[in-house]
Amino acid sequence: MQHAVRPRTLLRPGPTPAAPRPRAPRVRSLIDADALRVLHRAARVLLDDLPQVTDRLIAVLLEQEPAYRTAVEGDALATWQEVHRSLRHSISSLLDPRGARDGARRCSWKIGATRAEQGLPLDAVLHAFRLGGSLVWQGLVDETSRAAPEDVRLLVHVASDVWNFVDEHCTLVADAYRQTERQLAWRRENRVRLLAAALLDGTSRIADLPEAAVALELPEHGRYVVVAAAGGGLAGCPGAQAALAPGVRVHWHTGADADYGIVLVEDGEESIVQEEQAPGTRVGVGSAVEGLAAVGEARRLADTALTLCPEAGGTVRLTEHLPAALVASSPELGAALADRLLGPLAHLEPADAEVLLDTLATWLACDGSAQRASRRLYCHRNTVLNRLRRYEQLTGRSLSRPADLVEVSLALTARTLLNR
């Protein structure tokens, strides 16, 4: 019995040179015609014996390709039918290349796409196709050796047709596999984006939380903080990642005005973000919530913290700025409070009013110390006290009364936020 060895002359030709000379149509020689007759005779026998050929290829796959062993164990019937269908199209293409071409191509494309969906390695699928090609070639040689040994030598003239078919369909399988793989990756990425967006919007369904936890690689019942990062030349999530401390478990989601990090809190909120940020980078850190179901609320808290960040950049932890957060969370009430507490100063000259407001804010920042405020304002202590008394006279408020002092502090915060 002659061995099924692929002739050296069957190597695929290199790239076609530019602007090739026109060739006359190839006319098959009598030898070619005899070779086709031998090929067709053997192919018809293989087609009649297709179930047994399929069994032999399945046995070879089980022996030589571990990935297919798993596929056969998972669904032996489906794998057998796939192999049988592929072999039928392949052998039919030897008998009628034009008539069977489209069906064979569709079959190979479907196999590549299906195996990509199932996660079978592409190398294993291509190996299976080449094993199938080798088995068919060996079958052609064996049948011709049995029926007409003197004709075996003629098969060399059609061997290129057989192996070119195998090469063409390996390319088809690879293209289908890679295209399907890209589509699956896009679907997965899109699904992750949708799940993360729903969590951050607070519209996620309870039934979707387990899937979201798996997709985001975060526990469903962990403790979470949302970080909002903007400015500073942040280019999407990779740039925003620089705002976090190393080793933090986070899933980033790109929003319209900021990037949002869903951060698993394991050690403490203080260790989540970097102490120093790039110039112009604004980072808002919300307070902690329990479970992925509450991430929507955590995102709203992070947005509030982000509104408190100076335009020049910086990090604001909401838990350290709760009074200002109250004002920022209700701009209308903040504006009403500012008008009530600071409105009477509008009757002054703008420069005069600005001096009083600056003195008041500095005095509050110095914990009510006129002496420290005077040093910061480069004026005498009595000047500070006189300005404070003038504010009291204009507004009817007393800075020694705790309730008035709280309202004045919130009004100044509202004025700062509203004037950005």
TrEMBL record:
Q: Where is region (Disordered) located?
A: 1-24
InterPro entries recorded:
CdaR-like_regulators, PucR_C-HTH_dom, PucR_C-HTH_sf, RsbRD_N_dom
Which intervals hold domain RsbT co-antagonist protein RsbRD N-terminal? 51-191
Which N-terminal residues, if any, form the signal peptide?
Answer: none
Q: Name one Pfam family in it.
A: HTH_30
Q: Which domain of life is it from?
A: Bacteria
All copies of the PucR C-terminal helix-turn-helix domain together span: 356-414
| The protein's name | PucR family transcriptional regulator
Please report the organism this UniProt entry assigns to the protein: Streptomyces pilosus
